[in-house]
Specification:
single chain, 145 residues, Aminopeptidase, 3 helices
Amino acid sequence: MQVLRIKAMDTHPIRHKILRPNGTLDDCVFQGDNDELTFHLGAFVDKKLVSVASFYFENSSNFDDAYQYRLRGMATLPEYHGQGLSSSLLRTAFPVIKQNQCTLLWCNAREKAIGFYEKVGFKAVGELFPIPHIGKHILMSIKID
């Protein structure tokens, strides 16, 4: 397994297949995908892109930290679940986030992914809330030291 920086457009097929299967590929283009401080990571197994995550320099008013990153679009092909790929993407992202003077990473985690995020150190904030056509989510965050 190898983690590399990838382009936003490289994330779209996996985002579509896993996160927006009832939508279109255009639904997988997120605002900020091509911003200067946004970065995308991909995990490759045998040179095949199998897991993706995107990180946006974006603050949430729910946190006091002056500089924050947001995690969006983390997805792994089902046949590669349980191999630590998402954890590897996060471990690779943390130093980049810290280098950008940010002290917090936050996300809107899908209900079924809460356990994963807790396992890697994220804490839930507030209650579950619905995102139309996608499902229940909860705000989660982790301090970047």
